[in-house]
């Protein structure tokens, strides 16, 4: 037991807490959030537990001829898979959060801002939450025909919406890509990490953790 405790302490010592609540990984210097550190440690400890469980099973079988596999299968059988889960994890629907709707309402958007925002958000694509029309980033001419406003008015409204953090405008070749803040309206549950980082919504970068776990 003391050996396992030491291994857990070693995992914890892979990080140093910085001023402000962030953490830095000792060997690489990469920054981690508190949520990421907790998730990383939890996964490493889980792997450690399973390794020791396998060792316990091996010793029990070699010395006593006892197999614990039947018990483990019985425990797992209690977990029933969620039917059609992929339908809800993917981008087959749009999500509007009640608290987000209330906050947008409290922003008291001007009439042109409302028109631009509510028309465009129904064109968000999964999993980026970027506005796409016919599979491409729309031009201003296309936006004019869809929204029914002149380019100058649309640009002004977009700038105001960006200032309110409802959207982000990102230069993409000769066009401006429009990303809708998924905190208020999302194209699905599992959005791109880059989009979540863009709006500072990512507490835990699971892809980063998996890279360290599997190295």
From TrEMBL:
Lineage: superkingdom: Bacteria
Xref: Gene3D superfamilies: Winged helix-like DNA-binding domain superfamily/Winged helix DNA-binding domain (1.10.10.10)
InterPro entries: WH-like_DNA-bd_sf, WH_DNA-bd_sf
Organism: Paenibacillus tianjinensis
Name this polypeptide is given: Uncharacterized protein
């Amino acid at each position: 037991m003391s050996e396992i405790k030491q291994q857990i302490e070693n995992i914890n010592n892979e990080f140093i807490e910085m001023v402000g609540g962030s953490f830095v990984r000792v060997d690489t210097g990469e920054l981690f959030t508190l949520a990421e550190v907790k998730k990383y440690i939890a996964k490493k400890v889980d792997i450690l537990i399973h390794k020791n469980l396998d060792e316990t099973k091996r010793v029990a079988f070699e010395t006593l001829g006892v197999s614990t596999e039947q018990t483990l299968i019985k425990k797992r059988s209690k977990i029933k898979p969620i039917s059609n889960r992929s339908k809800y994890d993917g981008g087959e629907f749009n999500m509007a959060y009640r608290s987000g709707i209330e906050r947008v309402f409290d922003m008291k958007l001007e009439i042109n801002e409302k028109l631009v925002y509510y028309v465009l958000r129904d064109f968000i694509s999964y999993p980026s939450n970027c506005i796409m029309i016919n599979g491409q980033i729309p031009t201003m001419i296309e936006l004019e025909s869809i929204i029914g406003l002149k380019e100058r008015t649309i640009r002004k409204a977009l700038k105001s919406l960006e200032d309110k953090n409802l959207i982000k405008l990102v230069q993409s070749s000769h066009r401006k890509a429009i990303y809708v803040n998924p905190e208020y309206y999302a194209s699905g549950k599992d959005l791109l990490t880059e989009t979540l980082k863009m709006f500072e919504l990512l507490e835990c970068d699971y892809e980063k953790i998996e890279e360290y776990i599997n190295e």
